[in-house]
Amino acid sequence: MDTPTAAQALLEYYVKKILAAPVYQLAVRTPLQFAPALSEALGNQILLKREDLQPTFSFKIRGACNKLAQLSDGQKARGVITASAGNHAQGVALAARELGIEATIVMPTSTPALKVIGVRSRGADAVLHGDSFPFALEYALNLARQTGRTFVSPFDDPDVIAGQGTVAMEILRQHQGPLDAIFVPVGGGGLIAGIAAYVKYLRPDIRIIGVESEHSACLQAALQAGERVVLPSVGTFADGVAVAQIGAHGFQICREYVDQVLTVSDDELCAAIRNIYDDTRSITEPSGALAVAGIKQYVAQQGVRGQTLVAIDSGANINFDSLRHVAERAALSGARGEDAIYS
Question: Angle between the 266-280 and 323-335 helix axes, to the nearest 10 degrees?
Answer without folding.
Answer: 100
